[in-house]
Amino acid sequence: MKTHTPIFFLIAFLITFTLSACTAQPAPDLLEPIDLTIKDQTYSLELAVTPQARFQGLSDRKSMPDNQGMLFVFPYPMQTYFVMRRCYFPIDIIFLDASGRITATHKMKVVPIDTPENDLPRYSSRYPAQFAIELHGGQLQKLNLKDGDLIQLPIQSLKKLAK
User: What Å distances lie between residue 92 and 1, 5, 123, CA to CA?
Assistant: First the structure.
């Protein structure tokens, strides 16, 4: 009688390896988070410095603590737009110019996950921005930020990271 045990174990291993490779993991081009204090509130912000990381943003995440977020760093100031692509919770966004001054803020609402790209509401930086900070919804009201406010960033080191 012929046994197929080695083939069975090989197939089981391959299935297990394939499934574990598909689990949600942070994007490989995200850097270690930095701590940033905004008006006496400290946030742990993941850095999105590559086109892929900036495009992915907080998409596909089911939740995020109030004290976490994402800092988007662009290679140069530009007028930009963000959307709520496959986001499961409201997000507040803060656009900053090259010196860290606020150019615009928005409270971005959740839209149906299957909304076509062209139908997603666009949130504008209004003026050229080099940075954007995404926080959990409700943080803008808590922070009471206004256009023109300065947020202290490690600007030179962040600019060196942007791709």
Answer: 66, 55, 10
Instruction: Count the domains in the chain.
Output: 1
The answer as to whether 75 is a domain residue is: yes
Question: What does the pLDDT look like over 78-125, one tens digit per residue?
Answer: 999 999 999 999 999 999 999 999 999 999 999 999 999 999 999 999
Quick check: is 20 in a domain?
Answer: no
**Domain around 63:** 27-161
Residue 6 resides in a domain: no
**Residue 106: inside a domain:** yes
Nearest 10 degrees: Cα torsion 156, 93, 74, 63: 100
> Mean pLDDT, to the nearest integer, of 124-141?
97
Q: Between β-strands 68-78 and 41-48, what pairing exists: parallel, antiparallel or unpaired? A: parallel
pTM of the model: 0.81
Q: Where are the beta strands (DSSP E) in 112-161?
A: 123-124, 129-136
